[in-house]
Amino acid sequence: VQEKKIFMVQGHYPIIRRLMRARGWVEWKPPSTDRQLEQQPLHSPCPPAGEEEEEEEEQCDEDPNGIHDLMSYLVRNRVPNFIWTNYLGAVDRKLLGQDHVVNHYARVGAFTTKEGLCLSLQNLPWIEQTDPNTFFPRCYLLGTTGEREAFIDDFRLTAARSLLKLALEKAENRLPGSRQPPGSNKGPGDWHMCHDSHPMPSTAGPGYPLYPHLVEEALEVCEQHLGVLGHQDIDRGTPFPCRTCIDWDRFLHDYYCVAQLALSGALQNRCQELLQRLEEQLPQLSMEGKLNVWILKPGAESQGRGIVCATRLEEVLRLARGCTALSAREGKWVVQKYVERLLTIFGTKFDIRQWFVVTDWKPLTVWFYRDCYLRFCSRPFSLHSLERARHLCNVSVQKWYKTSPDQDPRVPPDRIWSSKQFQAYLGQLGQADAWHQVMVPSMKAAILSALRSAQDQVGFRKGSFELYGADFLVGEDCKPWLLEINSCPTMSPSSAVTRRLCANVQRDTLRLVLDYKDNPTCSTGAFELIYKE
């Protein structure tokens, strides 16, 4: 009590409990009038059946003599000095004294929800000279009129650019989508939860030729857009070029049905030249591909819940209206450009879960964890089959799918890799330096930009800290793209890799927040300080 070593755990965190007890701390348990709950509290060290079975026996034998329960009883009238909980709202405000340490900040939804991150990064150019389009796929809030119109404009412009790319590809007799991957007989409709899907452009029948006038219209629109880009303000208020100069409904209809092409050499040269000039102005031109795939996401959900993918404008708007009507959080839906040209491993999509800790917001102090892990999908990557098993890497999604027969056998059975395994793979590709020279610096920069964009909105509390999990995709050029940042990332291991890494990051987080402030020379494990304002 005198040393202020009383802690509380809310949620299933057996590693934290064991580590804190090993440090000589005593656990405080909330009083209960239910005797049974006193004997087996909600945050008991014994996890529910079927979860973390290897740790269950170890945790249940942790207090064979009941000494920890006795100590908890003796401090029942005190308040905990250290609180680790799964979310801040679960903590009684009476327990939050000025000198108490808590593992969460208030109002972090400004960067830990899809809606919040979208809004915060829109303001980034006003805060620092960084373009969010260089690391965050462009994103729009469909519940806001101005944002919805901006998305419609963006969708149309992306369709025009995609048409030029398709025209060049078809002119060179490289027909996209001519070979369907095995197991892709389930079309995009498998992704949609309530609506049928339309075929991808490249799967259209041969009855819809791509006439040169369609390419001419796309060239005209893109040339006008290029002229606007040279004078674009950092706000989104830049007028959309050629909004009425062509019939967009007819243009998009023809674009969806592109299958054949008769393109002159002069027109081909114009397409190539214009795309090269656009690439100098649009940092996302290379990753956006040529099929104009977009993702509709609930603004405040996690673990892949409610995600819908679409390739047609009217479909996105209809889905947004339908989802909004069913949602209690009206208008809280975002649409984001899908990273079509991404790096795959053994033909399979993956993403990266990267941890970091904020130990202070004034001054902003950020620690980056040097170890991370990759999450694989259970089926080969294909843009011609938009089922969840091929495109959502979340463990909470993939656990419902068996590995498909057409999956490369080199993909790990538990669909998890450590970053060290990834580095070895990059070395086999002749890209040994890509991890340390491209990916890690880019992930650090993206995280810092996201935090700075939301810094003024976060509820700052001295002495608190928070562990976050950022999710990244990797482009064909090894450049990472930030997808989202998660508050309270899962610590429940789903593989041997995550069992080790999740235990390590919890151990090192405690070192960081309990030892470092009194002894700056102590070990912080795999954490490195990357920013102190």
TrEMBL record:
Acidic residues bias (residue ranges): 50-63
Protein name in the entry: TTLL3 monoglycylase
Protein location: Cytoplasm, Cytoskeleton, Flagellum axoneme
Principal subcellular localization: cytoplasm
GO molecular function: ATP binding; protein-glycine ligase activity, initiating
Region (Disordered): 31-63, 174-198
GO cellular component term of the entry, any: microtubule cytoskeleton
Keyword ATP-binding: yes
Originating gene: Ttll3_1
Catalyzed reactions per annotation: L-glutamyl-[protein] + glycine + ATP = glycyl-L-glutamyl-[protein] + ADP + phosphate + H(+)
InterPro entries for the chain: TTL/TTLL_fam (IPR004344), TTLL_monoglycylase (IPR051437)
Record-linked PANTHER family: TUBULIN MONOGLYCYLASE TTLL3 (PTHR45870)
Zinc in keyword set: no
UniProt organism field: Campylorhamphus procurvoides
Keywords: ATP-binding, Cell projection, Cilium, Cytoplasm, Cytoskeleton, Flagellum, Ligase, Nucleotide-binding
Pfam families to which the protein is assigned, alphabetical: TTL (PF03133)
